[in-house]
Write a structure and sequence with these properties.
Layout lengths: L7 H9 L3 H12 L3 H14 L7 E6 L6 H14 L4 E7 L25 E7 L11 H10 L4 E5 L16 E7 L11 H6 L2 E5 L6 H16 L11 E4 L8 H18 L1 H28 L1 H15 L5 H13 L7
Parallel strand pairs: 1-4, 1-5, 2-3, 2-4, 5-6, 6-7
């Protein structure tokens, strides 16, 4: 979005009136890497921040093929039936060449995408670890300012840094299916420990008995894990997104846990820790960008990069020299 097309104040006024196109444009602005757009995005976020924080933010993850999009479609419809407005931030894997999304977008959530009370935004990860787009945290603020009170963040479900979603949501839902042979072995302990709810999807037809056995196994495994900061251990439930069995029960459990945390003060404590974390992330990103945009660093990096590849200097020595040059504002390193 060109910075001259719509000012941050105009975008703010439009998106807070429920203009979905304005929300989409605001997200595009926030996702932009252009310095001029970044300044406008910061101005827009400053306007939106006082209106944020009133939603329930739910992270949803699971291995590919587990039925995340189908479940989100059904769960989102259940929230809408209870008079909520739902924003889905569906983070797609990125093309390694173009950086764009390589999965479908709204077509994966056919019913939800037709609802006036729903907003679906697929975003490429663009190489971000954990399957979470780099600006997802800020996009949540925009959606909340636009009046969406149930935010569902669907992550890729691959890679060991998946737990990034736990640092931007209030509850973490791990989706699984029975009969894959890796119900316990293939799930990293860290993801299990982060889960507030483990839902075994596709628990229907001939899978019912197997799903019950998997549930029993998972409940025994969860009992050996440390409790979440909330004092709870993960609740293990069965559901079928296709048949919509157990979906409203899952919605009610999410609402119950969210209300428990709000009443106990745990929700605000969790968000406070998250804000501290994202402050550090923002500092790291800003320093990295300033470092790589420094002309003298770029020039020296090319030379030292060749030397490091050829073994003439260690990567650590090269890094120290580059940082020394950066600190001295472009002066040659000692």
């Amino acid at each position: 979005m060109a910075s001259t097309e719509t000012s941050p104040d105009q975008l703010f006024e439009r998106l807070t009136r429920g203009d979905r196109a304005a929300l989409g444009r605001a997200i595009t602005l926030v996702e932009s890497a252009r310095p001029a757009d970044r300044d406008q995005a910061d101005a827009l976020l400053a306007r939106c921040l006082p209106l944020s924080g009133k939603s329930l933010r739910v992270g949803i993850t699971g291995i590919p093929g587990v039925g995340k999009s189908t479940l989100i479609d059904a769960l989102g419809m259940a929230f809408i039936a209870h008079r909520h407005r739902v924003a889905v931030l569906a983070v797609d894997p990125s093309s390694t060449r173009s950086g764009g999304s390589i999965l479908g977008d709204k077509t994966r959530m056919e019913r939800l995408s037709t609802q006036d009370a729903a907003f679906i935004r697929p975003s490429p990860t663009s190489g971000t670890l954990g399957g979470v787009a780099g600006r997802t945290r800020e996009i949540i603020v925009l959606c909340e300012a636009a009046g969406y009170d149930r935010i569902l963040v669907e992550t890729v479900g691959v890679g060991q840094s998946e737990l990034a979603v736990d640092r931007m949501t209030d509850l973490f839902l791990l989706l699984m299916i029975a009969g894959t042979g890796d119900e316990l072995q293939g799930i990293k302990r860290g993801i299990m420990e982060a889960a507030d709810i483990i839902a075994i999807n596709k628990a229907d037809g001939g899978q019912q008995e197997r799903s019950e056995r998997t549930r029993a196994e998972l409940k025994r495994a969860v009992a050996m894990l440390p409790t979440r900061p909330s004092g709870r251990r993960a609740e293990v439930v069965l559901c079928s997104a296709i048949q919509e069995s157990g979906i409203d029960e899952l919605r009610a459990l999410i609402e119950e846990f969210g209300e428990q945390d709000r009443r106990s003060g745990g929700l605000e404590e969790r968000r406070s820790r998250q804000r501290t974390h994202w402050l550090q992330v923002a500092i790291d990103e800003a320093l990295r960008a300033e470092f790589h945009n420094d002309p003298s660093v770029q020039e020296e990096l090319e030379r030292l990069g060749v030397a490091a590849r050829e073994g003439q200097v260690s990567p650590f020595q090269a890094a120290r020299r580059l940082i020394a040059r950066f600190r001295k504002g472009g002066a040659p390193p000692p």
